[in-house]
Amino acid sequence: MHQLLSPRSLALVGVSPDTGKIAGRLLPILDHYRYQGPIYPVNPLHPTIGEYPCYPGLADLPEAPEVAAVLVPRSAVVPLVQQAVQCAVPYVVIFISGFAETRTKGVSLTRHIASSIQGSGTRVLGPNSEGFFDLQAGVPLSFSPIIDPIPGRVPLPKGSTVVLSQSGGLGFAISAQLANHGVGIRAVMTTGNELDLDLPDFIRYYANVDDVRQIVLFLERAKDLGRWSQALHEARQRGKSVWAVAIGQSPVAAQAISHHTGTSPVHYEEFSALFQTEQIPRLDDMDTLIDAVRGTQFAKSGAHTHHVAILTASGGGGIWCADLAVRYGLDVSPPSEDLANRLRSILPP
């Protein structure tokens, strides 16, 4: 996975010289953030793009890139993936949409991609992904306007929080909201339709990255709750604070997820049970998410715990806080006998 997030070389397949198009945004974004490896634009219609020589195909490159970003039309994706497999490209990122979420033809194309990579060394992120940005590695492989070098825009601050999202737009939007409230971002990853790589893959990867303290999840569905359970358990065992926003509570939202992703979502109740088992707080709105992440970020080093004490001048307020704490997976335990005696000595009867 490190090879995907910190590649030594990149191919941009279908890249355009028109920076007003999505296919034309990746190259200037990579240049702005000073990506250090070689970049190989691939487009048979152009001899050069900017200062870069342009190649007609992956097979014409001087080396097999570690990551190929696919920006070609939907009809050209399957042959491109097959070419990537033949060229032993380790990772392919498919940005284009129009696959399983469109039913009919898109479902067939999805199956062709899956069969093309089966048994090979090539892994696929997407389709319908908005890419990723690992700030530590300095690789902004995304067209998101959140990281676009628009004059006056403040870049995402580096930190220890990772945002992993099945939704591209919301993944980067959540990162921007957290950054606006002083939270430093380690990485943003958006997985799209998850034909191959999915959120549990990245949970497990970042669970083993030492400088990551928090993992924020935005999810719509899951293919395998067993893999989710293993990934979340590993993250908790590694001392990471994990926060989850899971949508699809209502029948109409669940139906919308099916149309958005082309998959049937896991029942919301099953997700809730999984989070409760793994002691993962499930949050319902942006304000609560921001407060939770900020509170953990600014806690003292080593304060990764679900045990809390409530200090309040109001009995009713304390009970209210206790209800909320339990709802979000925190443990409100009574004080030890020694602490209780010390408190009695200084508090009025």
Automatic annotation (TrEMBL):
PANTHER family: COA BINDING DOMAIN CONTAINING PROTEIN (PTHR42793), PEPTIDYL-LYSINE N-ACETYLTRANSFERASE PATZ (PTHR42793:SF1). Gene3D superfamilies: NAD(P)-binding Rossmann-like Domain, Succinyl-CoA synthetase domains. Residues 4-99 form the CoA-binding domain. InterPro entries: CoA-bd, NAD(P)-bd_dom_sf, Succ_CoA_lig_flav_dom, Succinyl-CoA_synth-like. This is CoA-binding domain-containing protein.
